[in-house]
Amino acid sequence: MLDDPGADAATVVTSLRDIARINRTFGNAAVAARALRPWWAGEPRGGVMSLLDVGTGLGDIPRAVAALAATDGVRLNLIGVERHAAAARAAAGPDLAALLAEGEALPFADGAVDLVLCAKLLHHLPGERGVRLLRELDRVAARAVLLLDLRRSPVAAAGIWVASFLMRFHPVTRRDAVISVFRGFTPAELRRTCAAAGVNATVRGHVGYCLTAAWAARPRGAVAAPTPA
């Protein structure tokens, strides 16, 4: 349902609230924050950096990242990108600027933002579309990119199905969450996708059946490697 930009606005926001609860309960937001921490570790206290979150949902993950950065004395200026107008409106706030755009065609100049985050979006974009997304994330990043997605597992699918009843998720969330797990990746698959996009990513597994792929942004003017035939 969340792949449809014309989906019912109220259902979209309700489902995204459920997803934010998943991110918090199963540690996905904390994983993203910890994985990005090394990229601001060298900043002096009082430093300011920009963070772009592509497919931001309600903005819960970038806000968790910003909260951790604040404990290190670094302020993150948050920008969220969504394809759903309702999601962008729900995510926007004094601490996060939200705009409508497609992840495969971001309205930013090369190297326009320090850090780029993309959580649980890649599995929605199979094949060449996913490769284009990764290249766009790399293009607009000045320092680093962090991709977070799901590790495919029947155990995880069964777990989220049971949890969805215990946590009283909307029926749409319940269905979409299970579909998303089965659209997830193995570590090897995620490495291959990153390699196809020409990025040298470090892929790691984490609690909560999630994977991260992190890489330093390509120096400006460098050309991505071609997609393997």
What are the main properties of this structure?
single chain, 229 residues, alpha/beta, Rossmann fold, seven-stranded mixed beta sheet, 8 helices, 7 strands, 41% helix, globular, disordered C terminus
CATH architecture: 3-Layer(aba) Sandwich
Averaged pLDDT:
92
Relative strand content: 15-25%
Number of domains: 1
| Rg calc | 17 Å
Q: Looking at the structure, what is the overall shape?
A: globular
CATH topology: Rossmann fold
Note the gap between the termini. Answer: 32 Å
CATH evolutionary superfamily:
Vaccinia Virus protein VP39
What is the percent of helical residues? 40-55%
Largest sheet: 7 strands, mixed
Overview of this protein structure:
With 229 residues, the chain is of the alpha/beta class. The radius of gyration is 17 Å and the shape is globular. A 7-stranded mixed β-sheet has the order 3-2-1-4-5-7-6, with helices on both faces. Helix content is 41%, strand content 22%. It has 8 helices and 7 strands, in the order ααβαβαββαβαααββ. It has one domain: Rossmann fold, CATH 3.40.50. The two termini are 32 Å apart.
